[in-house]
Amino acid sequence: MQQYSSLPEPNSQVDATPTVLTTIQQLQAELWLEHSLSRLQNRLNDCLVSLTSNQQTVAGEAEIFQTVVNELNSVLNNTKVAIALVEPQKKVGKVCFVPTSTSQHSSSLMIEGMVKKKKKLRLRLAEEIDIDDLQLLAQQEPPGVWQLANDIDGVIGWLIIARTPVESDANAFKDTCIQITPQLLTRAVQQCVTTITQLRKVQSLQRHCQQLETINQQLERTNQLKNQFLANTSHEIRTPLSSITGFIHLLIAQGYEPSKERHQEYLGIIQSSSKHLLALINDILDLSKIEANQLEMQWEQVDLPTLCRNVLLLLKEKATNKGLKISLELDPNVNTLLADSLRLKQMLLNLLFNAVKFTTNGSVGLQVKLKNYWIYFTVWDTGIGISQEHQAELFQPYFQISNSVVSRNEGTGLGLVVTQKLAELHGGRVEVESELGHGSRFTIVLPLKQKCETEKVEEVEELGKVGKKAKTEDISRTSQSFSKNNYFPNILLVEDDSDNARLIQIYLQKLGYQINLVNNAEQMWKILYQQKPAVILLDIKLPDEDGLGIIQKLREHQQYRNIPIIVQTAMAMKGDREICLAAGVNEYISKPIDLPLLASLVAKNIYKTFYRNH
């Protein structure tokens, strides 16, 4: 009898159909996976393009999270999706994103798992979830949550999956999909994190671009101000220079005669223009010194009533020419103030000249009041006033208000900036009140007491008294002594600038001194070999040798060690005076030269030498 085997033959088709079906279902599931991920990526790409073009920030990430939740919710059957976010250093997360089809008023969906106390987690919007519970759910198989994390920020949030138990419908395809769902979620999380990282990079670049644009705008504004400043400064400097050179030309052409009234008028204009030119240069230099922290303050007890009256006297001519009234209101309790009198005067004049400049009729005044250990210097006017927009720019360097009152932009646009910074150096501030068409009020607020040591203040005051006394007494006293002893002091003047040298020579010769003028160090040494001067007037910047080096050589040489040395120099920055004194000079005076002060210093040193030797 023939026997048949119960086993199928090799390559038999009996078991082929289930294998083929399984393969097809697997391929369908993989296609479903790739299709779902591709769709999610397309949604995220569209979202990213939209967000970056609109330059959204925090709202951008929220839109990305919501897109992920909606897409996963649509492809996962019997599953609910949510995202919980965690603030830094917090131990509790909060559900911030659920599918848009699920309102916060609908019944919440529970998720069970191995969490503390075996409690159920709610996926309701704004529900709080412990981080420890989320970490436990992430360790389960299959996981209940996935971390949204990157290398820079760490954990951004948590993707939470809640599956609803359903009876099997014997759908092998769905079962296969469920098996590869963790793979779908893992890759979806990667897509989400990558999109957020890209968004943050784009936003960072956009912020940098905005910052660069802001910087470029500031640079452009600065460049405009610089050009405006250079144009205005050039114009302002050329104006007084034109008067100086023009009237000097007239004096030379006509032959200078002191008795002629018009020649005295010319000299007055030349002097006024020179002072104007010097004021312009000082504004520029003062601001540079202040910003470099190189401005020296000369503290002293200032007689405020006297200073204020003197300031208004300087203003009187300009105000009278415009038909303006000037008023001064002094608090009877205001007497003295510890301040730099020169700088205080400069601040008040800056404000007062501005008040006159922008006032066509009415009054200009100065009010000084004492209030709670602060002194308020208020300069007011009945002029055109200043808009709120312009008030915000008043204290920017080189800024000038265009107006119809002034025919041209006078000044450098630095006066108010310098005033504000000088007030700050005094420990105070500047306040502004103004309204278009109703005048302005600028107030300098200074503390009644400065943080200065009493001994230093007394020393400064004593030196000031000595200097003033020297100006009035030393010259006459020394001249009388010299004439009695038939002594005519010889001064060695070392100055390479011919105009300055000629000026000093003429002035000192009129006072009875003999002047040997040289313009370099080589000539100076030749003169010294021949005779010993009573005083050496030395410029620091010489063409052939450094003045400080010359001073050191003089002090090291026995023959010249005791000769008084007075330096007259353009070195006028903070510390320059101390450098010169440390090198061994007796006196220091900065350019432009104050001739009476120079004469006082010369007389004082010659007087000492004369009585030491006689």
From TrEMBL:
Q: Which gene is the coding source of this polypeptide chain?
A: hrmK
User: What NCBIfam families does the annotation carry?
Assistant: hybrid_HK_HrmK (NF038297)
Keywords carried by this UniProt record: Coiled coil, Kinase, Phosphoprotein, Transferase, Two-component regulatory system
Q: What class of enzyme is it?
A: transferase
Q: Can you name this protein?
A: Circadian input-output histidine kinase CikA
Q: Which reaction does it catalyse?
A: ATP + protein L-histidine = ADP + protein N-phospho-L-histidine
SMART domains assigned to the protein according to its UniProt record, in alphabetical order: HATPase_c, HisKA, REC
**Record InterPro entries:** CheY-like_superfamily, HATPase_C_sf, HATPase_dom, His_kinase_dom, HisK_dim/P_dom, HisK_dim/P_sf, Sig_transdc_His_kin-like_C, Sig_transdc_resp-reg_receiver
Which residues are in the Histidine kinase domain? 232-450
Protein family per UniProt: In the N-terminal section; belongs to the phytochrome family.
- Which residues get modified to 4-aspartylphosphate? 539
